[in-house]
Amino acid sequence: MTSTVPALGTRTAEGSALQAVLLDMDGTLVDTEGFWWDVEVDVFASLGHTLDATWRHVVVGGPMTRSAGFLIEATGADISLAELTVLLNEGFEDRIGRTLPLMPGAARLLAELHEYEIPTALVSASHRRIIDRVLAVLGPHHFALSIAGDEVSRTKPFPDPYLLAAAGLGADPARCAVVEDTVTGVAAAEAAGCRVIAVPSVAPIGPAEGRTVVSSLEEVDLAFLRGLMTEMR
């Protein structure tokens, strides 16, 4: 699955109101936000440090460099960012190799988007090595392209990943529906000008203009997404 996309240039909003669907991965499609925290706890325990549970809200949904960097600074652990990144990715790969539960409603939504040929992209702050492992379970045929956190110069909360995904699908960001589970991801999608559906996982997300908050993906289907876009017209 390639993340190669053309230069930023989008189709106009003429025609179908919903032009593409852009989906986050961890905590949105797969129930793995807890996996990341468990791995972080285990890795730092091996280094002789105990993580404060309140830090979980700080590191959730962010790029590896931000999350790992914060934990190094907070604990004072004697490890480099590069070394920690390797350990975290290896630990996470081990976890998803044993089990990879999907979020409720994820399989149905992906199948529906594929059936109706809705251009769909996977947009994650996780590294390519992790995304490819998860794609093998989700089904790469469900996605026209994927964007990994280590393949963009600025990942979430910056808008770059979502702008790249929209451009890669030839869609106007304003006609893209984004589904996210974290404040960081929501900020990135909204900065890109997309319509956001927030499905909070670890931390709460409040409603806002242009944002719809639901409790589960089971509330989200194609009719729901098209309805949100129709409201904008």
What does this structure look like?
The protein has 233 residues and is of the alpha/beta class. Helix content is 42%, strand content 10%. The protein has 9 helices and 6 strands, in the order E-H-H-H-H-H-E-H-E-H-E-H-E-E-H. The protein has helices at 33-46, 56-59, 64-75, 81-98, 106-115, 128-138, 160-168, 183-191, 222-232; strands at 20-23, 120-123, 145-147, 176-180, 195-198, 211-213. The chain has a 6-stranded parallel beta sheet with strand order 3-2-1-4-5-6, with helices on both faces. Strand 2, helix 6 (128-138) and strand 3 (145-147) form a beta-alpha-beta unit. Helix 1 crosses helix 4 and helix 4 runs parallel beside helix 6 (128-138). The chain is globular and about 55 Å long. The two termini are 34 Å apart. The model is unreliable at 1-15 (pLDDT under 50). Pfam families: Hydrolase. InterPro entries: HAD-like_sf, HAD-SF_hydro_IA, HAD_sf, PGP-like_dom2. This is HAD family phosphatase.
